[in-house]
Write a structure and sequence with these properties.
With about 375 residues, the protein is of the alpha/beta class. Helix content is about 40%, strand content about 20%. It contains 13 helices and 13 strands. The strands form 2 sheets. Strands 1-2-3-4-7-8-9-13 form an 8-stranded parallel barrel, surrounded by 8 helices. Helix 2 runs parallel beside helix 13, helix 6 runs parallel beside helix 7 and helix 7 crosses helix 8.
Length: about 375
């Protein structure tokens, strides 16, 4: 459509370490389990490597870089703040969990970051998908209660960002005489994901961009339609983002071989342990990822060029678009036609794959 906003392309900052395969050292393999998180990274998430990656992504023209949150990775606020001066125009999509920081302080932290970065902050609000991990941080709310708290958290943050005195009295937060004297300019955009009913309700009220993982196009379109309807009832019209890995090569055969190589070091015991760990999470979106392949090597191709091998052991985004450069571009175009406005992409290792996508796939789009 002629009036449609420009599609945004973001990359990923692997603050849990990077690697060339999923043999237990790559980012995301520690989600939901301390033992996996303790595995040494093939390419550690040092400040030097993260700076190298952020500068490459900045120069390659990506819009932003997503920095994750959780016990399996470095703190997102500190990491991205360390990269502000090393980058020029790149925005930072900082993931954080509302139950682990007070909303008035989060509003002030975001305002400070926005000023120091010259307006380059985006916020990814993550309610948390693991009861066990949340308890490790001292948070004892269950899945649905965390989303209810996230909605109230964002109510307070948005009130603070108006820059006028405010009070708030709710089930999770009570604030008297709150006043953020230097509100952010511009106000950071809020990214929010989740597949459960409580998550979708919060997204409808607060998400500037609703994020979902790389399910088949038809399923993504259904979810977009539902969120769009819920948001419209709130008088809102969010953008939609897709979080997915990419692996493109000169030929489809080479891409498939490289995909197989990513999981070549995983034996049946490692896969079974990964599936057990991920099945224990309370995240509805994670369950949907796992159901795509059921833990079977024989069910990894779930749609044209959509491969679920990463989700055998990695939490969160578990699918990748795999194929020739043209095939991957065509599949991304199909998601775009289904309503996706932004793509949050990644690949192993992240530095090399950021170049491959920028030089070979993005020009085709």
């Amino acid at each position: 459509m002629a009036d449609r906003p420009t599609t945004a392309f973001h990359w990923f900052l692997p603050t849990g370490g990077d690697a060339r395969d999923l043999g237990g050292a790559a980012h995301g393999t520690g989600i939901g389990g301390a033992s996996a998180a303790a595995a040494p990274a093939g390419r550690p998430a040092t400040l030097g490597y993260l700076t190298q990656l952020a500068q490459a992504v900045d120069q390659l023209g990506y819009d932003a870089v997503l920095t994750p949150t959780g016990a399996h990775c470095e703190d997102a606020w500190i990491t991205t703040a360390a990269l502000i001066a090393a980058t020029r125009r790149l925005k930072f999509l900082v993931a954080f969990r509302p139950g682990l920081i007070e909303p008035a302080l989060a509003a002030q932290t975001a305002a400070t970051f926005q000023r120091l970065s010259g307006g380059r902050l985006l916020l990814n609000v993550v309610a948390g998908g693991s009861d066990a991990e949340q308890r490790g941080y001292g948070d004892r709310l269950d899945h649905d209660e965390r989303y209810a708290r996230a909605g109230e958290f964002l109510d307070v943050v948005r009130a603070a960002w108006r820059g006028t005195p405010y009070d708030h009295a709710g089930p999770h937060y009570r604030i008297e005489g709150g006043h953020l004297r230097r509100p952010p300019e511009p106000v950071p955009e809020v990214y929010f994901g989740g597949s459960s009913d409580p998550a979708l309700d919060v997204a409808a009220r607060h998400a500037d961009t609703y994020l979902t993982w790389g399910e088949p196009v038809e399923q993504v379109a259904e979810k977009i339609a539902r969120v769009r309807e819920l948001a419209a009832a709130q008088g809102r019209s969010p953008r939609f983002g897709l979080r997915v890995h990419v692996l493109s090569r000169a030929t489809a055969a080479r891409a498939r071989q490289d995909a197989d190589d990513l999981i070549a070091g995983l034996d049946d015991a490692a896969i079974a342990a990964g599936q057990q760990r991920l099945r224990a999470l309370e995240s509805v979106g994670q369950r949907r990822m796992l159901d795509l392949h059921g833990g079977s090597r024989d069910r990894l191709w779930i749609a044209p060029n959509l491969w679920a091998g990463i989700g055998l052991v990695r939490g969160g985004a578990g699918t990748a678009l795999v194929g020739s450069h043209r095939e991957v571009a065509d599949r991304l175009a199909e998601y775009r036609d289904a309503g996706v406005d932004e793509f949050v992409l990644s690949g192993y290792p992240h530095l090399e794959e950021s170049y491959t996508f920028a030089e070979h796939v993005r020009p085709l789009l």
